[in-house]
């Protein structure tokens, strides 16, 4: 491929790509995202390849392994174009039938369609599936259309047109003004207005004129994978955003800091970067505009703290990844002491969109203080696990019930934690809360990077708080006292409470300690780490009190506080519990009620799970 | 020059000064641990916290790393500050109870109980030794190893490095190693042999002594 030297050449190429594409040509798009990978989508792709070859259809049918489609719960997912037929839970055995029926004859295979569990209706197309209906997939939607290893796919969806618009028709100040007007706020968690950050970076004095831009792809929150899916599925959108940002702030060097645990993201980003260089979207004299910008990919070493901007920069410089006080913003003094503009993956991916469609259009989406859409990873006790992109201001109820399909096994909703491990747990009374930066903060949680963990009635809120504090204690860099020692002692107290050793004054002490850790810590890790504890005390104080005063775990989770018992009236004496129990705790005669030997019981709950008559209860 | 207000008093200092330095120039004492004149500021111990007031909002910042800013309003001894400082002191004591420096500081702050589990690590990870070794001795023989609660000061691979000249500076500058507490038994995390524990006014013998006052009264008498 020839390097592109002007907008004319770019548009000529785009025209050629589009003219070669036949929209009516059948195309099988296989989701290659994280979830579908785990379901074995690679085997399906291989099976399709073989089948197409076997039937000699290579010229007639196109096969595409794309990035994440979002509906991970129902993976492996397949969309058949041009009709856009949506198949879910596809296995390699279905491949020949899909080719024979759908591709050749145009028939729909009924059993692979999604069935709405509520109405029982079958959905033929993605747009009919309730999971997708309420979403507004502006950033994430192209994932299903693009083979991330093929830059032509990105160009076919209008890729790099925002870049050419910026380079040839806009001054850097105009770009910043546009981003400011759009109201875009940082998607990494802090929610700082992106345009203002760019402006202060551009205006910051730099003796040799050197400035940097960084893409923060060190996504470490347990259960969150939206940045990963963007990098894996649409890496060019992130790169394009970065070049635009670099032009706006006047930077010529950029870094993408990707966590080591994302090998596919690293691979796809590396391929994308190579192609972007080859085509002249990154490098010297981009598109003949005279603007130079280089990007390097840097791999993180696996420390959660390196997602914090100053720790990330320390790590990039080759020092230990630990934060420094941010009295002077990184926009003024960041990487190597130079003005540095750091944004999150999702923020960068929003930039081309804003340039293409305009700040006025973008700012119409969302609420007063939070514009645009946000990708959430909806996980936990929810029917439709997956990545959802919704406009800001949508209520938690809409996300959890309309998109997420509610709680599995007919259980009751209890709480939702937003914003990753250091987010707060919001109770049912707040389920109609519109989701945006300011409202979540006010409710005691955070937007964070967009994790959303749903919990049902079987979740103990003290135990969940303990779990998150344990994670954060392990991931604290250990530099400052409130975070290192404070979280450790907080964990001690919470562990005591869950083990039935809680003291009356512990709850007040947790609140006091949490308040101080929040206020006195050096960086945002400590500054948000007590959120799970403080929010659960705020909304579920009765559970803490039950643990401390009555030595009782209302949810039946904390092992030290529960006993398993067999209800004699319900027990049929089938003996399944005794067979399942690894300790041999239940015993009794056939067809007579069994009894659990409490000495032997290790409270694993297998007896309860295996009992068909609900005879095993937790006391 | 930058003009700022500390504890209600206006002052002018040159740009680049830290709030801690500005306050001490005015004679206002802010307790410190990881700060040491001549070493770079690190902001680890958070004992030197001050309240930065911005309109009706305020935040806590470590004064040793906080540069002065035009029109800044600082409170060094507000309720918010003392509450946080005392709790941090408790945390420090619980991780390093046998230090006279810490015990004395706790006594001066009026702490009479440590409410946390005592986990004696013998080190508060203030990093004075690390910075002294690197910045003053130009050696860099020691550094931090590990993260979170397993963080510790060590030499690379726990072997005495070539860089170490055995100067003993690390030991000398350590705020908790300087004089180990000899009292032995701790009660509620406090040793009771220094200036602390029972508030002086409860001493039945004298009113203005600076001698040891233990839980059972005055040791000297």
Describe the structure.
The complex is a heterodimer of chains A (619) and B (221). Chain A has 619 residues and is of the alpha/beta class. Chain A has five domains: 24-81 and 85-124, 3-Layer(aba) Sandwich (Glutaredoxin), CATH 3.40.30.10; 151-363, NADH-ubiquinone oxidoreductase 51kDa subunit (Rossmann fold, 3-Layer(aba) Sandwich); 373-456, Ubiquitin-like (UB roll) (Roll); 461-549, NADH-ubiquinone oxidoreductase 51kDa subunit, iron-sulphur binding domain (de novo design (two linked rop proteins)), CATH 1.20.1440; 563-618, 2-Layer Sandwich (Alpha-Beta Plaits), CATH 3.30.70.20. Helix content of chain A is 40%, strand content 13%. Chain A has 24 helices and 19 strands. In chain A, the strands form six sheets. Chain A has a five-stranded mixed beta sheet with strand order 12-11-15-13-14. In chain A, α18 runs antiparallel to α19. The mean pLDDT of chain A is 92. By secondary structure, chain B is of the alpha+beta class. In chain B, a hairpin with a 6-residue loop joins β6 (142-145) and β7 (152-155). In chain B, strands 2-1-5-3-4 form a five-stranded mixed beta sheet, sandwiched between helices. Chain B has five helices and nine strands. Chain B folds into three domains: 2-77, Ubiquitin-like (UB roll); 82-120 and 179-218, no CATH class; 128-173, Alpha-Beta Plaits, CATH 3.30.70. At the A-B interface, α18, α19 and α20 of A face β4 and α2 of B.
Characteristic terms for this protein:
heterodimer; A: 619 residues; alpha/beta; Glutaredoxin; Rossmann fold; Ubiquitin-like (UB roll); 5 domains; 5-stranded mixed sheet; 4-stranded mixed sheet; 24 helices; globular; B: 221 residues; alpha+beta; Alpha-Beta Plaits; 3 domains; two-stranded antiparallel ribbon; 5 helices; disordered C terminus
What's the mean pLDDT score of chain B? 82
Outline type of chain A: globular
N-to-C order of helices and strands of chain B: EEHEEEHHHEEHEE
Structure class of chain A = alpha/beta
| Helical content of chain B (DSSP H or I, runs of 4+) | 10-25%
| CATH homologous superfamily descriptor of the largest domain in chain A | NADH-ubiquinone oxidoreductase 51kDa subunit
Distance between the termini of chain A: 70 Å
Largest sheet of chain A: 5 strands, mixed
- Total E-strand runs of chain A: 19
Spans of chain A of 5+ residues with little confidence (pLDDT < 50)? none
Q: Tell me the quaternary state.
A: heterodimer
**How would you state the average pLDDT of chain A, rounded?**
92
Q: Roughly how many Å is the radius of gyration of chain B?
A: 19 Å
The total count of strands of chain B amounts to 9
Strand-residue proportion of chain B: 15-25%
């Amino acid at each position: 491929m020839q390097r592109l030297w002007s907008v004319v050449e770019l548009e000529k190429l785009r025209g050629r790509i589009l003219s070669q594409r036949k929209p009516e040509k059948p195309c099988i798009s296989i989701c290659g995202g994280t979830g579908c990978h785990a379901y074995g989508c690679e085997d399906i792709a291989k099976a399709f390849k073989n089948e197409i070859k076997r039937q000699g259809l290579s010229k007639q049918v196109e096969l595409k392994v794309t990035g994440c489609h979002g509906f991970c719960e129902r993976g492996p997912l397949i969309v058949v174009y041009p009709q856009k037929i949506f198949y879910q839970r596809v296995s390699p055995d279905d491949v020949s039938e899909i080719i024979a029926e759908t591709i050749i004859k145009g028939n729909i295979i009924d059993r692979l369609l999604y069935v709405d569990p509520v109405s029982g209706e079958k959905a033929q197309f993605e747009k009919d599936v309730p999971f997708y209906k309420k979403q507004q997939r502006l950033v994430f939607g192209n994932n299903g259309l693009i083979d991330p290893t093929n830059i032509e796919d990105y160009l076919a969806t209008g890729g790099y047109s925002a870049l050419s618009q910026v380079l040839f028709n806009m001054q850097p100040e105009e770009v910043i003004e546009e981003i400011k007007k759009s109201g875009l706020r940082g998607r990494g968690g802090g929610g700082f207005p992106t345009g203002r950050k760019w402006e202060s970076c551009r205006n910051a004095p730099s003796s040799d004129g050197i400035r940097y831009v960084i893409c923060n792809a060190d996504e470490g929150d347990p259960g969150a994978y939206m940045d990963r899916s963007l990098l894996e599925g649409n890496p060019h959108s992130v790169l394009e955003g970065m070049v635009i940002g670099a032009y706006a702030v006047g930077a010529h060097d950029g870094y993408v800091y990707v966590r080591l645990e994302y090998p596919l993201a690293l691979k796809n980003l590396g391929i994308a970067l190579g192609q972007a260089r080859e085509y002249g979207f990154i490098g010297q004299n981009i598109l003949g505009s005279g603007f130079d910008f280089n990007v390097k990919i840097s791999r993180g070493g696996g420390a959660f703290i390196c997602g914090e901007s100053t720790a990330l920069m320390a790590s990039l410089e080759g020092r230990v990844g630990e934060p420094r006080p941010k009295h002077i913003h990184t926009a003024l003094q960041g990487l190597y002491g130079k003005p540095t503009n750091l944004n999150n993956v999702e923020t960068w991916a929003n930039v081309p969109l804003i340039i293409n469609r305009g700040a006025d259009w973008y700012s119409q989406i969302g609420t007063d203080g939070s514009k645009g859409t946000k990708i959430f990873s909806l996980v936990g006790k929810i029917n439709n696990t997956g990545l959802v992109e919704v406009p800001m201001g949508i209520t938690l109820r809409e996300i959890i019930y309309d998109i997420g399909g509610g709680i599995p096994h007919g259980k009751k909703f209890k709480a939702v934690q937003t914003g990753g491990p250091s987010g707060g747990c919001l109770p049912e009374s707040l389920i109609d809360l519109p989701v945006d930066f300011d409202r979540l903060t006010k409710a005691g949680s955070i937007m964070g990077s967009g994790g959303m963990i749903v919990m049902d009635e079987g979740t103990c809120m003290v135990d969940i708080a303990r779990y998150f504090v344990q994670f954060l204690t392990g991931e604290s860099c250990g530099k400052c006292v409130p975070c290192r020692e404070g979280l450790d002692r907080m964990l001690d107290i919470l562990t005591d409470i869950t083990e039935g050793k809680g003291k009356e004054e512990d709850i007040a002490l947790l609140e006091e300690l949490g308040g101080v850790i929040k206020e006195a810590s050096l960086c945002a890790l400590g500054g948000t780490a007590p959120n799970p504890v403080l929010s659960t005390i705020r909304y579920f104080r009765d559970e803490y009190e039950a643990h401390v005063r009555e030595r009782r775990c209302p949810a039946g989770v904390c092992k030290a506080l529960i006993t398993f018992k067999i209800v004699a009236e319900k027990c049929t004496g089938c003996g399944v519990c005794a067979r399942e129990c690894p300790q041999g705790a239940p015993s009794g005669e056939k067809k007579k009620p069994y009894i659990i030997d409490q000495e032997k019981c290790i409270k694993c709950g297998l007896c309860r799970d295996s009992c068909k008559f609900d005879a095993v209860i937790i006391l | 020059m930058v003009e700022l207000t500390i504890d209600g008093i206006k002052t002018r200092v040159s740009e680049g000064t830290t709030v801690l330095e500005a306050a001490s120039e005015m004679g206002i004492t802010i307790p410190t641990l990881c700060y040491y004149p001549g070493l770079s500021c690190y902001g680890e111990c958070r004992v030197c916290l001050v309240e930065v007031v911005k309109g009706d909002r305020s935040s806590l910042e470590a004064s040793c790393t906080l540069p002065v800013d035009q029109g800044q309003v600082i409170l060094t001894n507000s309720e918010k500050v003392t509450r946080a400082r005392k709790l941090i002191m408790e945390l420090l004591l619980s991780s390093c109870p046998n230090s006279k420096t810490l015990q004395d500081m706790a006594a001066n702050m009026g702490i009479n109980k440590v409410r946390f589990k005592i986990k004696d690590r013998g080190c508060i990870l203030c990093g004075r030794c690390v910075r002294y070794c690197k910045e003053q001795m130009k050696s860099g023989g020691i550094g931090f190893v590990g993260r979170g609660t397993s963080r510790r000061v060590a030499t690379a691979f726990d072997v005495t490095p070539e860089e170490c000249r055995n100067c003993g500076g690390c030991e000398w500058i350590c705020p908790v190693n300087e004089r180990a507490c000899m009292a032995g038994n701790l009660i509620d995390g406090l040793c009771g042999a220094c200036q602390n524990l029972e508030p002086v006014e409860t001493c039945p013998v004298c009113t203005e002594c600076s001698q040891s006052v233990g839980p059972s009264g005055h040791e000297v008498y």
